[in-house]
Amino acid sequence: MAHQLWQESRSGILSTRSLEHKGYPFGSLAPYSLDRQGRPLLLLAHLAQHTRNLQAEPGCSLTLVEPGQGDVQQLARLTALARAEAINSPSEALLERHFHHYPDSRPYFEQLNFRFYRLIPERFYFVGGFGAARWFNTGQILDENKPTEQG
After folding, report:
1. CA 68 to CA 75: how far, in whole Å?
2. Residue 51 in 3-state DSSP?
3. What are the CA-CA distances from residue 1 to residues 21, 35, 111, 128 (Å)?
4. What gap in Å lies between CA 43 and CA 8, rounded to an integer?
5. Which domains does the chain have, with CATH numbers?
6. For the segment 94-107, what is each residue's pLDDT rounded down to a tens digit?
7. For residues 29 and 52, is the Cβ–Cβ distance under 8 A?
8. CA 139 to chain centre
9. Rounded Cα–Cα distance for residues 77 and 66 (Å)
10. 105 vs 131, residue with greater confidence
C-alpha cells in the first residue's frame, strides 16, 4: 500500500524548516511528478517561502494522504524524509515527464523563472490506519532499479 500511495499521488504537504520563524516547520501544498527512479520533482517559484527555506536548509519532508472520506485517521499516510536539490539544467525528458502531468505549469518554467527541485528520499514512514505504522527504506518504495534520469 505504501508503494502504491507513493506512485499514484501527485500532491502532498511539503514541510521545510522556516527561515523566518526559527525552530518551526513550514508546510505548503505542493504538486509534483516522479522521475524515472520514483523521486519527486517539484516546480517551485524562486520567491516562495518554501523555496527560500529549502535553499537555506535542504532537509524536508513530503507527506501524502490516501484519497477518501470520513475519519482521516483511518486513511493511509506516507511521509518521506528527504533532501532537496535544485536542478540547474533539466533535461528535455524531465521537462516532458513533469509537463505531461501539469501542462498548464509550462509557462511558470519558461516565463516566470520557476525552478525544478528533486527530493532525494532517505526514509519513509507509513501509517496504514489506526495502530498500523512502520518505517521503510528507500528501496522498498522507490523504483531504484530504473536508469537514472539526468537533470
Report:
1. 7
2. helix
3. 35, 20, 39, 8
4. 18
5. 2-140 (2.30.110.10)
6. 999 999 999 999 99
7. no
8. 16
9. 6
10. 105
